Amino acid sequence: MLSDGEVDRLRTAAEEASWLCARGYPALEVARFIAEHRGLSPRERILLDAIARADAHHRHHIARELDPDDVAGRPLRLDVASVCANVAASIAATFDPRIVLFESAAGLIGTAEVAPEVLAVHEPEALRRIAEVVLTLGPSAVRIVHDAASLEHADALRKLLSGKRKPTVVCEEVASVAARLRGAAFVASASPEVLDHCGTWFNLAGILAKALGVTALRLG
Fold this sequence. Notes:
220 residues; alpha/beta; Rossmann fold; 11 helices; 8 strands; 12% strand; globular
């Protein structure tokens, strides 16, 4: 958990970062500059870095976000690594109140505080919940885009989505998920790098975070 003082410092820093990023300054450089200027603690710096990246192009994200109904009957491209990690973090936050989640102006949920070993505990449940929502949405097909490090997650999700009267599911391993999804439509991702350059996107991770009832700080 963050103290009131930490929240106030981060809110001020995030507002300043959003103003600078909107004028074309790189998010990481902006976060470092403001962190030094504001004298933020190491924990606050890590969070500001993540917040600045998520919120840097929020207007672009908002303009290209899809509603759930838009996905029905359409081919969905799913960035399994970012969505799974994001949902696993949200699940972890329901057990550990010390985990801080934030929400960008576009509704993108993020965190910078969950250890990989903690995420690993909750990833099976995260994948189950992801599959459940995807099947409810009713896309015509699902292309699970992943890199080599996320092969096991992609295969597990493929198995959860496969079966009778279910969408066609394909796994595609790529060197760079962000590069592969650049300009693509009907993308489900929780990665700012992907959302900055894709055509249209669906906030699958955000829907699941809200379903879990987790509280995310709106700092931008």
